[in-house]
Here is the input.
Amino acid sequence: MKKIIYILAAFFFFSCTDLDEDVYDKLPKEDFGYTIEQLNAIVGPAYNSLKGVMSYDLSWGMSSITADAMIAPTRLGGDWWDGGMYMEQTMHTWDARSYTVENLWNRTMEGLTTVNSIYTIVDESELLTPELKARYLGELRGLRAFWYYQLIDYFGNVPLVTDYKDTNLPSITKRAEVYKFIVDELNEILPALRADVSDESYGKFTKGAAHMLLAKMYLNAEEWIGTPNWQGVIDQCDEIMKLDYVIEPEWKVNFAVHNEVSREIILPICFNATDGGNSIHLFTLHYLDPVTLGFKGGMWNGICAVPDFVKAFDDADKRKEATFLIGPMIDPATGLVQITTANRPLIHTVDLNIIPGTEKQDAAGNLTGWGEVHQEDGARIKKWEFEKGMANTDMENDVAIFRLADVYLMKAEALTRLARSGEGLSLVNEIRQRAFGGFDHNLTALTLNDIYNERRFELAYEFTERQDMIRFGTYLNPKFMKPKPTDSYRKLMPIPFTAWQKNNNLTQNQGYPGF
Here is the structure.
């Protein structure tokens, strides 16, 4: 009988110790790994797992909804109420049984397990050259480090599992130990990773991605392990800036339909229309918006921008118009404003106005300020270009997890925190010059508040808001639709109850009720 190497094309794991798998393809061992194409086919699902961050109820949405940039309001008639799960995200009232917490944990663990399983396949191959094996294992270790970066960001203390074949139920590892593991992994794999910034390296875990992830670790070190490392941030940013990445002259290139041409993107989630693509248009647009925008599809009329966030943008900032869909949606066939099923004009407002009498109760039965809004309310997210002519498909636009503009702003922040703001001023102004189309809005001095706001405007909906608010000390403050301060323990999510049911070696994060 032939020995078989399995290529795992899809995974549905619900904890790092639930190792059931669906096998979708396989190669005889003697045919494995002879070509780059075969290797890419085997490693591909590990990269495909990055799609597990892209939803309003996964890392992408949790970053913005729990912060102050995005909201999923309940629509007239109860759409998007779903038992109050999105109200929980905004009001910071989640618990260990909340769907969004459970879903975030599951999908993150699924991504981690995917990478660990493929790592085992490549590691056990006897056919790869040492150089190729080192490179591919380095990429996989980098992806694994990314998933642990996600886990310690949201959950803090998590199981540390690197052996796919180990079926023992793991215990919780302290956040500081996982932090050290991530940093050590990234430093160890750097020599084996490719450094080029090219079509061939696009979508791969490269030296640039490793330096970027290290910079993120150091950027949040004070919060995550209690010891700041601002010089580490500067050093890693400098390493990235030595590579061939560029600040694209046209900001929109980073979000275009075919944004794979961008040399500003450092680590993308690669999407296409036929294999589980970018679904931001489904999440945010009204059912009738595609008529105005020139494509077809069944929209969900869900997430939109927090009004205060939209209003914080300078009207002269080109990013404002490029990020938000606001105003009347005209039917090109008639030249008239479209009318919703509630017989109201489809005019997207910045403000969200609660309809009197629709206020909801929280889990304890207390009346809240959360209520229903009209279908058309809310600025919709259009940062990623909507392709005219789409016909009931997902979007082709890749989504950058990391890009060079963030590097400039991270370095400027670290310099400013070290009382060297003058050195960071030109970095922030280069980002502002692109945004405003000239020098008229350049800053003459730099403060942490300037950097905080520039990060909000430049990196809106790019996985940064929650981290930034925690780091700058604003996450716990009252905000739109959250009138009360948040207890500090909620800077971490609880370990889900369902995860503990499968592995009672897990212990709950401090502040949340124990299991």
